[in-house]
Each structure stands twice: as C-alpha cells, then as structure tokens.
C-alpha cells in the first residue's frame, strides 16, 4: 500500500536525521522527495503525527523533539515497559515457551552490538541496540507493549539525535545487556525486570550528562 510505503520511508528519513527536529515539511516537498503522489504522503504525515514524530504547522508539519520534561517522562515509561517485557520474556522462557533458536538470536545480537560498539562502528551499533531491545519485546509476546515501545523509542531517538555519541562506558552497557540476557535465559523474571529498568535509567542519566556537556 502506497501510504504504508510513504510512512515507512518518511519515518526512516526522520530517524536518520535527514529531516531533523524543527524541520518543516509540506506534502508537495515530501511527495517530490519520495517521488510519490500527494495523497499517500498526506496520509503518511497524519499517521506520523499520531505517532508523535511530527505535528501540524500551517500547511505542513514540523518534526517534533520532546522537551526535557517530556523526555524524562518518556524514559520513565520506557523503563517501566522494558522491565515488563523483560519480565514477561523471562517468564515465558521459564515456562518453556521460547524456542532455542530465538534465544540463540538474542545472544547473537548481544554479541554483535557489543562488537560494533567496541570497534567504534557507532551508527551500526545504534541500529543493533534497537534490534536487541525489540527482540526482547517480541519474546515477551505482548503486542500492546511492543507497539507502545516502538512509539517511545522513535520519539526518544529523534529527540536525542543531536546528542548521540558513542557510549562513555561501552563495557558497562554491554555488561548490562549480557546480564539481561542471562536473566531471561535462566527464567529469572524479577532479575530481568530489575536489570532492564536500571539499564534504561542509566542510559537516560548518561544522555542527560552529554546534553549538558
């Protein structure tokens, strides 16, 4: 469907910084950039507004960036949701409802993320990190939590795009990932929730320090 294609492509352009926070977009400009008609672009912009990535402004939209207070709230909600999905994933693993292949995939993405970070391939590491957290949410098998996290991840990513930098403590970040995976594999629901929550809140603390630097 053309609208879905337009939405996906436009979302990618926002997330990769081609259209940064504050950028004003019109149907005509986006349609020309995507080489599509204005109708699917119009619907795509409406969908992205509902997702919180853009807001109406005159005859077009503006790419949104969360203010500091809203960003703090977003991280708090993300921490709660990721604690929930980690807990659910660990519970499902304890009950034997997660396939060995899925656990192997989780271990693989953990290793790939740590390697990319350690080698300074930061752009790749950011994408891998998103896949890592998304896979845990998928293993939780709660579609509402996954949908809510997708929205929050996008908003946080766009809002912190200008301050993104290699982790100041890459070994610490990778260590938390490994702790989280270990808790899920062992079926330790409470421990998985604790590590997931701490990891997200540590990420916010580090990001806040970099914003002030």
Automatic annotation (TrEMBL):
Residues 1-66 form the HTH gntR-type domain. Keywords: DNA-binding, Transcription, Transcription regulation. Pfam families: FCD, GntR. The keyword Membrane does not apply. CDD domains: WHTH_GntR. It comes from the Bacteria. This is GntR family transcriptional regulator. The lineage of its organism: Bacteria, Bacillati, Actinomycetota, Actinomycetes, Streptosporangiales.
């Amino acid at each position: 469907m053309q609208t879905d294609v337009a939405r996906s492509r436009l979302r990618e352009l926002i997330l990769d910084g081609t259209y940064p926070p504050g950028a004003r977009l019109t149907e005509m400009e986006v349609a020309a950039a995507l080489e599509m008609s204005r109708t699917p672009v119009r619907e795509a912009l409406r969908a992205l507004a509902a997702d919180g990535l853009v807001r109406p402004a005159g005859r077009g939209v503006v790419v949104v960036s969360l203010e500091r207070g809203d960003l703090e709230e977003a991280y708090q909600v993300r921490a709660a949701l990721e604690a929930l999905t980690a807990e659910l994933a660990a519970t499902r693993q304890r009950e034997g409802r997660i396939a060995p292949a899925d656990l192997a995939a989780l271990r693989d993405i953990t290793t790939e993320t740590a390697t990319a970070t350690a080698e300074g391939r930061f752009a790749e590491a950011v994408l891998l990190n998103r896949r890592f957290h998304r896979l845990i949410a998928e293993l939780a098998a709660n579609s509402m939590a996954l949908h809510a996290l997708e929205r929050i991840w996008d908003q946080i990513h766009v809002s912190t795009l200008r301050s993104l930098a290699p982790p100041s403590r890459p070994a610490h970040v990778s260590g938390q990932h490994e702790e989280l995976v270990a808790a899920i594999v062992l079926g330790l629901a409470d421990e998985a929730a604790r590590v997931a929550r701490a990891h997200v809140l540590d990420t916010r603390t580090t990001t806040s320090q970099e914003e002030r630097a």
